[in-house]
């Protein structure tokens, strides 16, 4: 004899409800992937190391989804009511997930525990969705077809999410509002399914209604407060007041200003301080320019802030400057923001300058123009997409664009805190260029900073008079190209695109700095 409590009551699904549930699968699959991408990208923005955080987030999500799927087997009855309740919970938790993680990073030292808890809660709930939906649809399509249909719509939803997130959601809504919007979509799915199956909810009607009302209030508050909260978090993350912040398709762009000090941050990493940026940019431009046999056409890779171009335009012989920078949001900011335009002397709007917003790796392959000077002003090699721009393959592409007597230079991170990464850049360039020379400059905002100059002719003697700047002069350039005695060359591996050892070199150095921040506080910006 079977106990009444063991009786399985399967929901009845009409054709109309089947279509509704199929659409729900498509939507919730997209929402689930957006939460993964949201946490991954936010963690990368706050802490760097994109591969680590994307891998960690995806791996943990899959694990906890497995835990959720295991829990789902214990649910026997009231499948629709439980599914609706799960959607309400996902909407509420997912909707405030980005705000909670931002707050954990800005005001506590427990970001990773907060990240783990957030992933665990959302992952377990998401893991319960598909098993429940499969069993709900079983009464309409049978188990075999039910599983196939669920997985089909699930994969289609994931595809849509993977396209929406980088191209629409993140650039136009940002992390906080995206989380609120996706949470609202989960809540809407819960409401529509609950209304369609209202006759089968029974005693769950009141809890579902109460839960929906609470979740709606939470999501409304998070959406309304997304912009003020973003400003609050940004000001907590940066030392100086934030005067501009935007999320582009590629990165978070922040301008801060205190007194006369204008600072640009990309994904939380300081790019320049207006107080001392001239030291960096004078070395970046005027040092290699003196070793060119002629100076007419210049290529700048990166440098979307226009500061390197400002220095290049000081030469009357310049005929053309091409700036290849991936992110149009950076070059647009450099052209339109009043204070940044004043700093770069409106250089990007000069008639001699052409700005091209494409991937430099691909652009160098397609274009065959030759340049007398190539200036590479890229972020440090902390991730795979940037590290490949410090590889043998990339420098070979650069070399093919150098005119006879041409010179290239690249920024090469800190030779003090990231010594192995610094020497890996030089060692890699030596595979491609006939002569490679290191250079250093003390930039107070960063500490001692490194560069490497490369050419296929001798770099022992300048080909023309050194530019007389505020920092680099006829009397100072030799000191710039003379390494301190306590920074001897290290034996390191060449950075090849197949292996990219420079990433581990770079992380080792800066992780050591983070463990001992008192050694040089400015360098941790």
Write up this protein.
- By secondary structure, this protein is of the alpha/beta class.
- It has three domains: 11-228, Growth Hormone, Chain: A, CATH 1.20.1250; 234-269, no CATH class; 277-524, Vaccinia Virus protein VP39 (Rossmann fold).
- It has helices spanning 15-47, 50-72, 79-95, 97-107, 111-196, 205-224, 226-237, 277-289, 307-312, 328-336, 338-344, 360-366, 384-387, 392-399, 419-432, 477-480, 502-515; strands at residues 242-247, 252-258, 261-266, 269-273, 297-302, 320-324, 353-356, 371-377, 402-411, 435-443, 447-455.
- A seven-stranded mixed beta sheet has the order 7-6-5-8-9-11-10, with helices on both faces. It has a four-stranded antiparallel beta sheet with strand order 1-2-3-4.
- The longest helix has 86 residues, at 111-196.
- It is elongated, with a radius of gyration of 28 Å.
- Mean pLDDT is 89; it is low at 1-5 and 517-525.
């Amino acid at each position: 004899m079977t106990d009444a409590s063991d009786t399985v009551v399967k929901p009845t699904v009409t054709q109309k409800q089947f279509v509704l549930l199929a659409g729900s699968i498509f939507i919730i699959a997209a929402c689930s992937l957006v939460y993964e991408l949201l946490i991954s990208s936010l963690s990368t923005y706050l802490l760097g190391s994109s591969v680590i955080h994307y891998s960690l987030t995806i791996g943990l999500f899959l694990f906890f989804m497995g835990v959720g799927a295991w829990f789902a087997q214990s649910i026997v009855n009231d499948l629709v009511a439980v599914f609706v309740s799960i959607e309400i919970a996902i909407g509420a938790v997912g909707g405030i997930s980005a705000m909670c993680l931002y707050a954990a990073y800005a005001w506590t030292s427990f970001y990773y525990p907060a990240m783990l808890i957030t992933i665990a809660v959302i992952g377990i709930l998401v893991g319960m969705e598909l098993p429940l939906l499969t069993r709900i649809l079983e009464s309409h399509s049978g188990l075999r077809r039910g599983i196939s249909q669920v997985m089909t719509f699930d994969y289609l939803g994931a595809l849509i999410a993977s396209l929406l997130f980088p191209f629409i959601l993140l650039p136009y809504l940002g992390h906080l509002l995206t989380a609120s919007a996706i949470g609202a979509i989960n809540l809407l799915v819960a409401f529509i399914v609950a209304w369609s199956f209202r006759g089968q909810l029974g005693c769950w009607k009141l809890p579902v209604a109460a839960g929906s009302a609470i979740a709606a209030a939470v999501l409304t508050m998070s959406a309304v407060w997304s912009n003020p909260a973003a400003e609050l978090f940004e000001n907590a993350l940066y030392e100086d007041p934030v005067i501009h912040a935007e999320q582009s398709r590629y990165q978070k762009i922040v301008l801060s200003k205190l007194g006369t000090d204008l600072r640009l941050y990309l994904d939380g990493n300081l790019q320049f301080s207006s107080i001392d940026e001239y030291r960096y940019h004078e070395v970046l431009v005027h040092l290699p320019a003196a070793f060119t046999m002629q100076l007419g056409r210049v290529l700048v890779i990166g440098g979307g802030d226009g500061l390197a171009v400002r220095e290049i335009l000081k030469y009357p012989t310049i005929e053309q400057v091409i700036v290849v920078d991936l992110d149009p949001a950076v070059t647009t900011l450099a052209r339109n923001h009043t204070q940044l335009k004043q700093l770069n002397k409106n250089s990007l709007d000069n008639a001699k300058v052409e700005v091209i917003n494409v991937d430099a790796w691909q652009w160098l392959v397609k274009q065959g123009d030759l340049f007398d000077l190539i200036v590479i002003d890229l972020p440090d090699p902390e991730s795979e997409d940037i590290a490949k721009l410090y590889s043998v393959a990339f420098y070979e592409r650069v070399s093919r664009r150098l005119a006879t007597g041409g010179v290239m230079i690249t920024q090469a991170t800190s030779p003090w805190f990231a010594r192995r990464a610094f020497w890996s850049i030089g060692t890699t360039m030596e595979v491609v260029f006939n002569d490679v020379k290191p250079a250093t400059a003390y930039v107070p905002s960063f500490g001692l900073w490194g560069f490497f100059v490369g050419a296929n002719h001798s770099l022992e003697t300048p080909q023309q008079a050194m530019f007389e700047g505020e920092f680099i002069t006829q009397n100072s350039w030799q000191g710039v190209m003379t390494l301190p005695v306590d920074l001897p060359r290290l034996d390191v591996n060449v950075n090849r695109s197949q292996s990219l050892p420079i990433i581990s070199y770079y992380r080792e150095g800066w992780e050591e700095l983070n463990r001992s921040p008192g050694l040089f506080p400015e360098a941790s910006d």
